[in-house]
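Work Package 4 report. The design task specified in the project plan requires that, given a folded chain encoded as structure tokens, an amino acid be chosen for each position. We show below one input record used in the internal validation round.
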């Protein structure tokens, strides 16, 4: 039985949130966070192009080394980490022209023994169909529309029937990259895709668009403009931002974020798009721990966004502040869809990864010597599981593990939180294959005490929800007679 992700639904909301095709999620008193991370399957190839961590001195490496995305044992560890720390799904990168790379999804992810512990959806690199670098547009029409629709029909046939494919209100989720560059007959392509997928029996897909950015292509003049393009946004069910780094804003955003306007500017831009979405389009905040592609594209001379608020700050301080500033404020029990998208699980070439790195002291030295051209003088550490812990502590109130008397994990058991006074069930999660459960903090109040325990047993413990970290509550499952 697939693990049921952490979500709770208000009875009066028009858009109920249901995930997966396994047992239906139970409806409680309020929504929960649904946390996703962009996931790349282009390894080991892309490790060979270079990345920041290998060029630091001393070098820093992924805990799993330079791995192969088609290896199920690698993916099993990724899923285990994600499930334990409260990442509900992977948004898996898929390219229109890369058949061999796309095949690694089936070879690795879908062969993982613990695939039931997580959900996944496809992140379609739509810009590759027709993106024009000289003017930054992706014009739709004719053959481009045909290719777009046929590609996503292939995606549907390959993945939508999998029990771990992410669904919202029974609708398969698709994320489209760089929709903010779309021009031409993109509306016709989207309408045709919806119709043909419904004819195939997959229903109307829930489409999330990478639409939020500093400047986007106008739907009327096709020039770059600062304002949200609501006419294009209405073609989709939700909008998000993949990456808010912009080389044109180097003067405003270069340096440690504690000393510039990056975080405030993103907050303001998100607020602008949130208002533009109105009631019909879901706004999904995106967040990243930092950005540095200089280990891969040094010749492009893109400025880095450090992971520390300042040189002496704690590892992950930018990620933590970003969650506080422009993610959590856009999530509330009044919203139908409370999703967060993290850029990224493992985009090592741009150093947006939160996948664990072997522990190492912080350094700003790199292979360029005293020039520090790759690090730009900013400090980086081997952060271990720091970013997963931040996800857990910021977005989840209670976590723990179910073990039997022999210390073995107990899976597929529901753990719930109850209101102490009314004994009302507030939220539940199902333990994964290693016995871990984790419960969102959205419907629980800091400073308030609740009862927590396995739904099938009478054993409960009292926990007080904390503002800054998730509370651990472990349980021993009784031996079967």
């Amino acid at each position: 039985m697939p693990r049921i992700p952490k979500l709770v639904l208000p009875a009066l909301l028009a858009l109920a949130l249901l995930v997966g095709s396994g047992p239906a999620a139970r409806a409680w008193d309020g929504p929960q966070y649904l946390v996703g991370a962009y996931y790349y399957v282009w390894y080991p190839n892309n490790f060979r192009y270079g990345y920041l961590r290998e060029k630091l001195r001393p070098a820093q490496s992924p805990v799993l080394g330079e791995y192969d995305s088609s290896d199920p044992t690698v993916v099993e560890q990724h899923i285990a980490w994600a499930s334990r720390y409260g990442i509900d799904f992977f948004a898996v990168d898929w390219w229109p022209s890369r058949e061999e790379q796309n095949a690694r999804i089936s070879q690795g992810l879908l062969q993982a023994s613990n695939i039931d512990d997580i959900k996944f959806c496809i992140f379609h690199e739509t810009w590759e169909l027709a993106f024009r670098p000289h003017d930054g547009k992706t014009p739709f029409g004719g053959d481009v529309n045909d290719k777009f629709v046929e590609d996503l029909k292939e995606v549907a046939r390959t993945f939508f029937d999998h029990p771990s494919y992410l669904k919202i209100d029974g609708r398969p989720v698709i994320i489209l990259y760089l929709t903010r560059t779309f021009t031409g007959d993109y509306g016709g392509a989207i309408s045709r895709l919806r119709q043909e997928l419904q004819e195939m029996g997959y229903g109307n897909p829930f489409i999330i668009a990478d639409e939020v950015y500093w400047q986007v292509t106008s739907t009327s003049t096709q020039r770059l403009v600062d304002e949200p393009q609501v006419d294009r946004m209405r073609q989709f069910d939700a909008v998000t931002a993949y990456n808010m780094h912009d080389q044109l804003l180097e003067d405003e955003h270069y340096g440690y974020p504690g000393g510039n306007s990056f975080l405030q500017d993103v907050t303001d831009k998100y607020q602008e798009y949130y208002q533009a979405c109105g009631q019909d389009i879901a706004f999904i905040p995106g967040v990243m721990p930092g950005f540095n592609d200089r280990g891969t594209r040094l010749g492009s001379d893109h400025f880095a966004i450090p992971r520390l608020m300042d040189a002496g700050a704690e590892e992950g301080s930018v990620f933590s502040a970003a969650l506080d500033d422009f993610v959590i404020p856009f999530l509330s029990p009044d919203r139908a869809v409370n999703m967060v998208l993290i850029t990224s699980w493992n985009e090592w070439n741009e150093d947006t990864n939160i996948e664990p790195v072997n522990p190492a002291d912080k350094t700003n030295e790199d292979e360029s010597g005293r020039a520090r051209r790759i690090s730009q003088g900013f400090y980086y550490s081997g952060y271990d599981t720091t970013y997963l812990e931040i996800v857990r502590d910021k977005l989840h109130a209670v976590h723990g593990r179910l073990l039997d008397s022999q210390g073995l994990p107990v899976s597929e058991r529901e753990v719930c939180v109850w209101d102490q006074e009314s004994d009302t069930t507030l939220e539940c999660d199902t333990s994964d294959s290693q016995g871990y459960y984790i419960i969102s903090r959205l419907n629980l109040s800091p400073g308030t005490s609740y009862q927590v325990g396995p739904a099938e047993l009478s054993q409960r413990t009292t926990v007080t929800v904390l503002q800054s970290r998730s509370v651990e509550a472990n349980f021993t499952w009784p031996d079967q007679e």
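The domain at 397-477 is CATH 2.60.40.1120 (Immunoglobulin-like). Validation will be extended to a larger panel in the next phase.
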